[in-house]
Amino acid sequence: MAAEPVIQLRDITKRFPGVVANDGVTVEVGRGEIHAxxxxxxxGKSTLMKILYGLYRPDxxxxxxxxxxxxxxxxxxxxxxxxxxVHQHFMLVPGFTVTENIILxxxxxxxxxxxxxxxxxxxxxxxxxxxFRLDPDAQVQTLSVGEQQRIEILKVLYRGxxxxxxxxxxxxxxxxxxxxLFTNLRRLRADGKTILFISHKLDEVLAIADRxxxxxxxxxxxxxxAGATKAALAEMMxxxxxxxxxxxxxxxxxxxxxEAQDLTVADxxxxxxxxxxxxxxxxxxxxxxxxVEGNGQSELVEALVGLRPLAGGRVLVGGAPVARHTVRxxxxxxxxxxxxxRHRRGLVLPMAVWENLILGHHRRRSFLRGPFLRxxxxxxxxxxxxxxxxxxxxxxxxxxxxxxxxNQQKLVLARELAxxxxxxxxxxxxxxxxxxxxxxxxxxxxxxRAEGRAVxxxxxxxxxxxxxxxxxxxxxxxxIAAEFAHGEAxxxxxxxxxxxxxxxxxxxxx
Amino acid sequence: xxxxxxxxxxxxxxxxxxxxxxxxxRGGVVNIGLEGIxxxxxxxxALGALKYGPAAGVAMAAAAGLALxxxxxxxxxxxxxxxxxxxxxLNMLAGGLTRFLSILLFGMxxxxxxxxxxxxxxxxxxxxxPFLRPVASGISPLVVLAALAVVAAxxxxxxxxxxxxxxAVGENPHAADTLGLNVYVxxxxxxxxxxxxxxxxxxxxxxxxxxxxxxxxxQGRGFIALxxxxxxxxxxxxxAAASALFGFFDALSLRVVxxxxxxxxxxxxxxxxxxxxxxxxxxxxxPPAAAGRPYVKEEG
Lengths: 510, 300
Ligand SMILES: Nc1ncnc2c1ncn2[C@@H]1O[C@H](COP(=O)(O)OP(=O)(O)OP(=O)(O)O)[C@@H](O)[C@H]1O
Ligand SMILES: [Mg+2]
Fold this sequence. Notes:
The complex is a heterodimer of chains A (510) and B (300).
Chain A: E1 5-16, E2 19-30, E3 34-39, H1 45-52, E4 60-65, E5 68-70, H2 75-80, E6 83-86, H3 98-103, E7 109-110, E8 113-114, H4 116-130, H5 145-158, E9 163-167, H6 175-190, E10 194-198, H7 202-208, E11 211-216, E12 219-225, H8 230-238, E13 256-266, E14 272-282, E15 285-290, H9 297-304, E16 312-317, E17 320-321, H10 327-332, E18 335-338, H11 342-346, H12 353-358, E19 368-369, E20 372-373, H13 375-388, H14 405-416, E21 423-427, H15 435-450, E22 454-459, H16 462-468, E23 471-476, E24 479-485, H17 491-498
Parallel strand pairs in A: 3-10, 3-11, 6-9, 9-10, 15-22, 15-23, 18-21, 21-22
Antiparallel strand pairs in A: 1-2, 1-4, 4-5, 7-8, 11-12, 13-14, 13-16, 16-17, 19-20, 23-24
Helix pairs in contact in A: 14-15
Chain B: H1 2-26, H2 34-52, H3 54-78, H4 83-106, E1 111-114, H5 133-136, H6 141-159, H7 161-171, H8 173-178, H9 183-210, E2 212-214, H10 221-231, H11 236-255, H12 263-267, H13 269-281
Antiparallel strand pairs in B: 1-2
Helix pairs in contact in B: 1-6, 1-9, 1-10, 1-11, 2-3, 2-4, 2-9, 2-10, 3-4, 3-9, 6-7, 7-9, 10-11, 10-13, 11-13
Bound molecules: adenosine-5'-triphosphate and magnesium ion (MG).
Adenosine-5'-triphosphate (ATP) is lined by residues 16, 19, 21, 39, 41-47, 405, 434 of chain A.
C-alpha cells in the first residue's frame, strides 16, 4: 500500500431501524489497490459502499479522500471526487446504444446538439485504453450480462473516476466473463485506479484482491493480505469453522420421477423460448441445469410446475402424464418448487411467517376445520418447520419481509420440503446467499436426494452445479446443448457451452 | 383531391395532439388528459380569436394547455398520483370548466359566436392546376406549422441532448437519476410540451375548422391521438403517419353516403378503424419502458 491511502473510512457507524448496519468500521485503501470486502448476508458491506458513494450519510465517523475529510452529499458529489459505483442491478437504458448509455448525462454537444461522432470516438478510445471488448454502436438489449457490466464500468471511467466500487460484480457472470472482468480490473489497477470489490465467492476474492476486509454484523473482524486461506477467511466471516466441502453419498438412482418430453414453451408473440427439451430425473438424483440466465431455464421451470402453458410436448410425474396443466395439479402430484425469485413468487412478503409456511398446503385436511383454519395445528406445524430449518425469526407472526435473504430462502425450503414431495425443482436456490446460508441450502438439496426425491436444480453457479449434480445439462438458447455426468466436465468446459461457443451433437455446424 | 384536402385538414388536430403525446410519454408520463386539454384549447382558441384575432387565439390556447398540463405534471410527477386517474380528472375538469367559462364569457353554455380565422395560404403555380387546386390553396398556416412540428419533434428527440435525456427518463429513470439527470425537470418538460401541442390542436379545431367554439367539438380526437401515438410506435413520424390514416377515414366518413346504412355507423368509422388498428398493432408496439410509472427518488 502506498504511503498515503486514497480512501480512509474511520469509525463509520450507520443505523437503520432495529439494526446497526455499520458499527465503527475503519478501512483504509491505497492507490492502485484492489480491496475486497467480504461478509455474511446483512454484514453491512453494501451499506458501507453506499456511504462511500454518498447514497447514505453515516450517523458517525469520518471519510477522508486523498487525506482530506469530506462530507459526501450524494452520488454526484462522490463522482466529483472521483468515486464511481458499478451497481449490482445494472442501471442501463436497454433501447439505447452502448455509446448513448455511457455519455448520458455528460454528452459531448454544441448548443444542445448531440455530437454523435465525437461521443463514439471517446467511447471507442476508452475501450481501447482499458482493453474492454465492446462495440460502441451495439444496442444494450442485445448484449450479454458481461458486456453490460463493462458498460457500467466504462460509464464510471468516462466520468473520470479514480476509485471504483463494485458490489457483487461476479454474481451474474460465467467463468469466462469473470476472467475477463478480472483482466480488466488488473489493467485498471496498473493504471493507478483503486478498486473496492464485494463478493461472496472466496476463491475469486483470493484470486484478485490485494487485501481483504472481513465484516461481521457491522463490525470489522480484520483486514488480511492476499495470502490468506479460504478456510481462514470463511471462519472470520461466520465466526465458526465452516465445512467447505459437502459430503455427497454415492448415487443411488431410483425410479423415474420427473420427465419432460420434447417440451416447447413460447412467449406471447409465439417465439419459442424452450425448444424441444427432453430430460428425465430419477428419485435419489440431482439433475442440474446450468446456463446463463435468459436461455430458457426460467420458462422451462415454469412450464414444469404448471405456471406456463406448453406449446408442445408433455410432462410426466412419477411415470404418469400430468393431465391438467395447472400448478395445483402439479403440487398435488408431489412437485415442490423453489422459485428463482423468492420475493415475487416464493413468498408473500407482507404476510406472516406462518401464513407463508402453509401457502399451497392450506387445503390439507389437517389444517382445516370446515372452511376455517385450524390455528393450533398450523402453529404447531410452523414451529416445527422453523426449528428444523433453523429459520431465524423473532415470531411466527413476523412478516416475511423482515427476514434476511438467507432466512427467507430457508423459509421457502421449509415449506416446499414439507409433506414428502416426490420432486423438488429448485431455481437459483443460493443466489445472493452468504456461505453459511448457501451451505445450508446445499445440504438440504443433498438431503432430499438421499431421501430418494428427484431434484431438478437450475443454477448459474457452476461450483454448485459441479459439486451437487449427478448429471448436468447445459442450457443454451432454449435447448439442452450438452449433458455431462458428475465429474465429467470442468467449469471452463461448461462455460463454453453456456455461452454457445461449443455445441455437442449438433448437426450441420458451419 | 377534395378528399385529400379534407383529410389533411382533419389530420392536423390529431397530429398535433399526438406529437404532444410523444413528448409526454417519451418522458415516461401517460397523458390521457390530452382530450381535456384539447377541449380547453378549443374554448380559449375561440375566445382569443374573438377578442384579438386568430394568432392570439392560438397563443391563448397554448397557454391554457400549458396550465392544464402543469396541473397534470404537478399531480403525477411531484405527487406520484396515478397518471390515468389524473388524466381522467383532467378530462372531467375540462368539460366543467369550459361550460362555466362559456356561460360567463360568451353568454351561452355550449357555443361561442363566430370567430375570425387565419388568412389562408396557397402555393403559387400549383394552385392554378385545376386538379391540384384543392390541396394547393386555402391552406391554413397551422397546417404548415404542424408539418414543421413533425420534423422538429423528430430532430429534437434524435439529435439533441434534451431528446436523449427525455427518452432516457422514459425508459429507465433510475439510470438517468444515477447519472445526475434531473428526472423531474425532464418529465415536466415532456408533459408541458404535450399541453402546448394539445392546446394548439384544440385552437385549430375552433379557429380554422369550426370558425366558432361549440361544446364537444373535439369528438374524442385527444384519444384518437393516443391511438396514433401507439400506432406510430412513439415516434413523431410514425405518429404523423397514423394521424394521417385516422384523418383520412375521418374525411371519408364525412363523404360516404351509403343508402340504407344509418349515418351513425359511417361517422363511427374512424373510431372503429382505430380499434382495429390498435388490436393488430399493439402486440408489436414497444412503449417507453417506464411510461405510466411514477418515479420516486430514493434516499440520497
Ligand atoms: N435501507 C435500509 N433500511 C433498513 N435497513 C437496511 C437498509 N439497508 C440495509 N439495511 C439493513 O442493514 C444491514 C446491512 O445490510 P447490507 O445490505 O449492507 O448487507 P450486505 O452485507 O450487503 O448483505 P448481502 O450480502 O446480503 O448483500 C441488514 O441487516 C439490512 O437489513
Ligand atoms: Mg449487499
